[in-house]
Amino acid sequence: MLNAEHTQGAHVGAPRSRVDGRLKVTGAARYAAEFPADSLLHGVIVSSAVTRGKIKRIHTGDAKAQPGVVEVFTHENRPSTAWFDYKYRDETAPPGSPFRPLYDDEIQFSGQAIALVVAETFEAARAAAMLVRVEYTPADHATNLDLQLDEAYVPPKKRNGIKPPPKPRGDAEAAFAAAPVKLQNEYRVAIEHHNPMEPHATTVVWKGGGKLTIHDKTQGSQNSQSYVTNVFGLSADDVEVISPFVGGAFGSGLRPQHQLFLAVMAALQLERSVRVELTRDQTFTLGYRPCTIQQVSLAANRDGKLQSVMHNATAGTSRFEDYQEVVVNWSGLLYDSPNASFDYRLAKLDTYTPSDMRAPGATLGVFALEAAMDELSCELGMDPIELRLRNYADRDENDDKAFTSKELRACYRQGAERFGWSRRSSKPRSMREGRELIGMGMASGVWEAMMQKTAARATLTADGKLEIACATADIGTGTYTILAQIAADALGLPLERVSVKLGDSSLPKSPVEGGSWTAASAGSAVQAACDSVKQALLTAARGLEGSPLANVDLDRIVLRDGRAEVAAHSSAGLAIEDIMRGAGKQKLEAEESAAPSKTAMLTHVGYTHSAVFAEVRVDEELGVVRVTRIVNAVAAGKIINPKTARSQILGGVVMGIGMALEEETLVDHHLGRFMNHNLAEYHVPVNADIHDIDVLFVEEHDEMVSPIGVKGLGEIGIVGTAAAIANAIHHATGKRMRDLPITIDKIIGA
Amino acid sequence: MSPSAADASASVGAIPIRITINGESHALQVEPWTTLLDLLRLHLDLTGTKKGCDHGQCGACTVLVDGKRINSCLTLAVMKDGSEVTTIEGLAQNGDLHPVQAAFVEYDAFQCGYCTPGQICSAVGLINEGHAQSREEIRELMSGNICRCGAYVNIVDAVEHAMAHRRQSPRNPEARS
Ligand code: FES
Ligand code: FES
Fold it and tell me: How confident is the model at residue B169 (pLDDT cuts 50, 70, 90)?
């Protein structure tokens, strides 16, 4: 096995264990709250007990009098920060006025941070925080989306990077009226919280002279850095954000969160190092997947050909920002329909602003569409895969562009075969074992294959080692590993000779890690930087006195096993160390950036696709659902590391199972408050909930979607999973579940 | 001892305890309200043990106390006077990964790595208990450790592999009489 690793091209496409694995299994990987600092202070946040209103008085005397307490910050004594909204707007912010912690006496949502108690020890700060007493003047609040539907509006300002709904095509209403087979349904998905295992935290290390090193839980070290410099009026030279490990985020680390603001504020004011960690229940005051109500109408001819697709959605947002995501557009591009219309609205609620959560928008919209397609297949008496094949879209009608590649047919075929779809009886309630009803369902998944301009640096040193650097983050996605693989192959090195530095704002520029774009973007940048180093190395090699490569064309020289050799015979060549020494180089370094091809994107658009198959067993008396098998067939371009790639899909599927059956942030609308703000009552899948999950990647060659042919995998695994499960539950029980999560009460009650 | 541990020892009401952590004996003064988890993370800079909820709901803080897996966030440090604690930092021997650690790397049984120390300590505890015989039982008995990255299938593979390895191995790395 080791020998194979030492030849060129050995790493990309091969399963490799994570290069950061050892650090993670030994506890040596440090996360945001784990960086040490001399005489570190601890901050504990006091959260508002009312949902809306004003702080009449806030009594901090008792807290301040506690031993070890250094300061209690409130809106009354906070240091001044930037005035304008735009200073608080990070690179992922929706339009609006971002939340400003401790800004004034106004309460905008339940759990809002209203004070920070800073003490010499965590325990002292925690105890003192309980002594802060607050008098409120409460005001009326609205948190129930159902009651705000009349007030829903089309967002006047589009969120950067979010495509608005496509223009209507044909006459969807008339075609719906005229079609022989049709359905019109409402679908709902509850609020969900990301709940990464690492609660949000920031450690600010005070370096003296106003210089800060910040360890923040973030998907974008440079995004956090510019937020801090903008809000506190600091120079970028004085603020470095270093976050090499992130304990999961799923979107919750995209926006700088309020613990970053509070920790920096306290550190600057007290001129000491400060750490602020959120408790698990306080993490429920961050963004979330918004409650979304959707209507999908489908109409088809008797042969299954779609005639009309109408998809409308209304989602909650905060009073102060118009959070938007792509919910309905998927219905315009997954299937071909001559008539289609779309509508996406927001309604204001007294909550914090929602945020991107794994496959934002797509999980919701594709759930509704794919559940509706399943119903249509039943209406037509047609196999669900057959219905999808009859309406297969060969072109993206939304943007009127060709797909860079689309192997969804192969996903259906290979997924169905692996799953044993042919064993499915077409009738609902027709498969049973003991008291369990067995159901099989499927759904398609889709996510945009995006790429963002990203830079990376490659540094080859005289000892033949290569260091890769990029500011992007690895939140568990496997970025460290795939970048090492790409770099090792580019310079023909064993993996052990490549090191990768990420998650540091001082490194080459990268956007936030998200949207599944990191592998394509950072990967292409690393490829480009390594190619430049390779050019310089080979040029140096040919220029050496008596070089065996002197008269060899560059394209006939290969780098393998740490040597530059003539492609045909490996005896003529030079070790990298010898080239470096001969050329008198301590290092060869290149920084390059990669960006999507503007010309290709004029005519083409890239999407990742999947076909998800689910088998469920439903206890008829108890209503308990077990998802006993999932097969997820994914077409995502080139797979750099089948091992970590599979894990990405497994993780998406598991979260999709959670979405289908368990996850729901319950709101007490009377109090305007999330009720189940802990991991005992907000149910996420545990080990016993997860049975067999089989992931397969179909071959998909795509030279257009990104320079390295990669599409990205972080989101696609969750898309379609909930629909496949809901469809399987229908197949098992004959009951249609259009409201997620599908909890026992809904199954029993239906 | 770290400076913060010295601070803790100076405060009123601190209680002396002796506790062995990863083979090293510590004489400490701890506040009665300091959890074992906070003692490890905040006072001894053993940050490998994670805090995911502080309420016994996630398993991220799992450590081995006298060979048994417990949630260190639900345990006051003073309660463990005289105990032997093994954290994730204490599992590898002379730079060699513990078989469960090695299996986690091999089977890609984690992504972000934040639940991982707790999963591994829990798996070591599970194997010590000797109850789990099947994948089904591993799933059930590992369900106190949440992995939000969803690595469960690989966690079960890794634990199953480590269990089989232990049965085959003549020199049982876990054996403590
Ligand atoms: S931190 Fe102890 S169980 Fe979650
Ligand atoms: S690896 Fe991220 S929570 Fe388990």
Answer: low
Phi, psi angle pair for B94, to nearest 5°:
50, 40
Domains and CATH numbers, chain A: 21-28+451-595 (3.30.365.10)
Number of the ligand 1 atom closest to the C-alpha atom of B57: 3
Rounded to a whole number of angstroms, the distance from the CA of A200 to the nearest CA of chain B is 10
Residue A78 CA to ligand 1 center (angstroms) comes to: 33
DSSP B98: P
* Phi, psi (rounded to 5 degrees) for B163: -65, -45
Distance from C-alpha of A206 to C-alpha of A549, rounded to nearest angstrom = 53
- The residue whose CA has the least distance to atom 3 of ligand 1 is B56
CA-CA-CA-CA dihedral for A709, A715, A718, A720, to nearest 10: -60
pLDDT, tens digit (0-9, with 9 covering 90-100), for A228-260: 999 999 999 999 999 999 999 999 999 999 999
- pLDDT per residue as tens digits for the range A308-335: 999 999 999 999 999 999 999 999 999 9
Residue of chain B with shortest Cα separation from A653:
B150
| Residue A568 confidence (pLDDT) above 90 | no
Q: How far is the CA of B128 from the centre of ligand 1 (A)?
A: 21
Backbone angles phi, psi at B53, to 5 degrees: -150, -30
Ligand 1 test: best mutation among B55, B76, B87, B148, most atoms within 8 Å of CB?
Answer: B55
Domain B3-90 -> CATH class? alpha beta
Distance A252 CA to ligand 1 centre (A): 20
* Confidence check: pLDDT of B1 > 70: no
Q: Rounded distance, CA A629 to CA A653, Å?
A: 11
User: Which amino acid residue places its CA nearest to atom 4 of ligand 2?
Assistant: B147
Closest CA to A187 of A384, A388, A439, A369: A369
The answer to whether the Cβ–Cβ distance between A475 and B112 falls below 8 Å is yes
Residue A196 alpha carbon to ligand 2 centre in Å:
8
Instruction: Express each pLDDT in B33-54 by its tens digit.
Output: 999 999 999 999 999 999 999 9
| Residue A715 appears among annotated catalytic residues | yes
pLDDT number for residue A209: 87
Question: Pairing state of beta strands A739-740 and A181-189?
Answer: parallel
Secondary-structure class of domain B99-168 per CATH: mainly alpha
Average pLDDT over residues A271-290: 98
Angstrom distance (rounded) from CA A634 to CA A636? 6
Distance CA A575, CA A562 (A): 6
Rounded percentage of chain B residues whose pLDDT exceeds 70: 88
The string of pLDDT tens digits covering residues A356-379 is: 999 999 999 999 999 999 999 999
Cα–Cα dist A244/A731, whole Å: 46
- Give the burial string for B88-118 (b: 16+ CB within 10 Å, else e): bbbbbeeeebbbbbbbbbbbbbbbbbbbbbb
Only one residue has tokens 């492609």, namely A567
pLDDT digits (tens, 9 = 90+) for A467-505: 999 999 999 999 999 999 999 999 999 999 999 999 999
Residue of chain A nearest B53, judged by CA positions: A280
pTM above 0.90, yes or no: yes
User: How close A26 gets to chain B, by Cα (Å)?
Assistant: 6
Domain ranges of chain B: 3-90, 99-168
Catalytic hit among A325, A591, A700, A715: A715
Which residue type, as a one-letter code, is found at position A663? E
- Both tokens of residue A449? 């294959």
Which-ligand-closest: CA of A195? 2
Q: Which of A36, A120, A197 sits opposite B115 (nearest CB)?
A: A197
Residues β-bridged to residue A570: none
Of B53, B104, B107, B149, the one to substitute when testing ligand 2's pocket (max ligand atoms within 8 A of C-beta) is: B149
In the prediction, which pLDDT does A551 show?
Answer: 86
Q: Across the interface, do A17 and B50 touch by the CB < 8 Å criterion? A: no
* Cα dist from A275 to A44, A206, A324, B142, whole Å: 9, 11, 32, 32
